[in-house]
Protein: SEC-C domain-containing protein
Amino acid sequence: MRPDTPAENVDHTAEAARLERTAALYPEDAEALLLRAAAHRELSGDRPAASALYDRLLASGTELDDPLLVRALKASNLWEYGHEAEARAIIDGIRTAAPRDPAPWVIVAESLESHDELEQAHETFTEAVRLLLTDVAEPPYATHPLLFGRHRVRRMLGADHDEWDALADSVHTLPITLDELHDPKRVWSLGSENPAELEAEISRLRAELGAYRAALSRPFPVAVLHWPASELAELTEAYPSLAEEYPSYDAHLATTEAALRELSASGTPNLGIVTGTVPSYEAFAASEGTSPSDTTLLPQYATTLAARGRAVAWPPEPGAQCWCGSGRTYGECHGAG
Structure:
């Protein structure tokens, strides 16, 4: 499914089946592909099939990139079709495990919130924020939903603002304030006969929709292809015609960074980098019935890797290592220019 396909035009059952077939072809990417397939199963209303996919991943015997994320998604799905006790047990286990990734925290906290367990949701959001953001100068993008979710729940509980709420306000960039977006009385304004109140609520809803669209678009970045030094040497040795595309490793790195900066300057959002390997590229070329020497295949390969969940967001978070693998921070390496 293309990222720009309107939601109402998606056959979720067919899309899930397509992703499951793709996972069989690319077992190294099965985790990302099957998680997307499970999401489509949930959207189609077939929640037991979604649970079966989560169980398939957890029982696969392969090392998952984020097993706690899979468990969190499974718990959220189970609760939606009547398996509350099992869902609660999984959520308790995730909270005890205290993952360093914000995604499992967000899913279980929002699951509690959606079932009116506001005190438990607040405790979960707060645990995550304290664990991940204490003594952090600038909250990474991935942690913003924790701050926003905690702020939302506290508004529903009638709690006063605290330092974490102030931090949520500071990273919020939409024109409508968080206090307005999370106002528990907003639901009543939808039934108002006052045009001014209705217009204000429409503005708030548009702001929320913009935030959701931005968040949903992040898994589908415009990706630029990067080859590690050893892979690039093997590639150009096996396919000498590609040396024209990649005259040297340093030139490749400089071109990659320049392409990303140019895309960013043009207003292209959600940029990412995918890392190629020669065996993967050769397999892709074979699947396309094309020679690996064909330079027009390179951007298609990058897009395919991104669709398989292989993209890493660019630019890296402040203080994170550079995308090139030098071991230095991005600011000291390619981000210094």
